[in-house]
Model the fold of this input.
Amino acid sequence: MIRFEQVSKTYPGGQQALRQVNFHIAPGEMAFLTGHSGAGKSTLLKLISIMERPTVGRVLINGHDLNTIRRQQIPFIRRDIGMIFQSHQLLMDKTVFDNVALPLIIEGYTHKEVGKRVSAVLERVGLSDKSRCLPIALSGGEQQRVGIARAVVNKPPLLLADEPTGNLDPKLSMEIIRLFEDFNQAGVAVLIATHDLGLIARMRYRTLTLKKGQMITDGLTEDWPGEDDEPAI
Amino acid sequence: MSLLFKGRSQGAERTGIALSQRIVMFFVSHVRQALSSLGELWRNPAASMMTIAVLGLSITLPSTLYILLKNTERVSAGWDQASEITLFLHRDTQAGDIHQLQTRLGLWPEVESVVHIDKAKAMEEFQQLSGFGEALSYLDNNPLPDVLLVTPTSKHTSPTAAGLLLDKLRKEREVEVGQLDIQWLERLHGLVGIAKELVSVVALLLFLAVVLIIGNTIRLNILNKRDEILVMKLVGATDAFIQRPFLYTGFWYGLLGGLLAWVTVALLLWWMGDSISKVTQLYQTQFKVDGLHGQALLLMLGLSILLGLAGSLLSVHKHIRAIEPK
Done:
């Protein structure tokens, strides 16, 4: 599903964010991406959603080289990727319903279809009764669930989350991760970047660890932080 | 169709909705965005009114000048056709001869009519109108000659034909001087020509200013909505989708500004109506000023909308592209 081949990223100014990163995430797989802040987690996610381009190497999604994607095609790539952010990135002057409906409206769904899908996905994240609220009236955990609802409302095959539990207490964090597990079980590939090691430790999922831009471990949580016993790619 | 995943179609394609309905949806979404842009203007009435006023007043000036020019042309076109030849007769010509001459000339095929202005009558009129009334009464005898006003038939009103007729008339024994006054008409045309060019230049400069002002207003709108645009880009909105509401804003500015200009022009013409009719009375012509109607009105509204769109397009192209999620 996602394949990195010898990917390096150097920002203008010489800061090297990623060095020769290789890995592959299979369709329907769920994995964590971890490392200290500044290790390159966000950069890696940005390369997948083409917010940044690699300096060297190739990023492939479903076998398509993202280097060949032209600027005008980027929006269509992003429609295949559900993205969740620590800062939620919600429109604060629009209702929960309108926020979640945004991807569908962009894609030109009919009014009826939008209503149906948004209700269904809000039900799934447990916010049916809040659809007419403004995000500002919701708690942090609820706002994050609005963000998740928006990311999955058009049923993308791939879900990226950047510190989705960043501001949440452990119990709420776990709820959010359970939600991701639900979607994963429905066949969606999920990649979650987090520095919440306690959270990862309680789960049994493949974990990719970055340190100063290099992939230092890639394996199941139970092996973590042991040596890399599985070849990358 | 998804670029990355074969078999995964995006958006409305997947839901199996008929093409016809999707086309309908396209227009529905356009109308929705247009109305929401209008709503946005409505919610910021002070700022919107100022922009609309700038646009409207900027269009009012060239429109008013254009109308005045058009009307001047209409009037002078009428004068062009009615060119008259003035014949000043020898002072010693007898009344009988004058009458004979008048009848003779009236029979010429080139001549429509001949009017005799008696020298005594002319003197009376001159005394009344010139303001030299007192001074003129000291003169021993009437210095004015008898005058015949010859109106050529419509075939002979063009400057060259009228010139030929004038030459023929001058050969008449009783005629001392003949005048065909087309020089002042040529001068008038020259002045109108200059005025026309001036209007064009002023209009061009004002239009340019309007485009820049609208462009700047839309730029501020875009910067105000930076966060929203970022989010929309993150969830896969194309630039075309994002810029549409801003283009509609430009459209509304143009339309409303154009309507304002229309009203202002009408008010101006009404305001100036009195002084215009005074001038036309001096020329003893029945004359009504043509306002903005039909084609000219549509042209002005179209131009105004075009300016609004051009301004927003200028801004949208540059600034929406520049906002990218990082």
Notes: Chain A has two domains: 1-80+157-233, 87-155. Residues 87-155 of chain A form one domain. Confidence is low (pLDDT under 50) at residues 226-233 of chain A. Chain A touches chain B through 35 residues (CB under 8 Å).
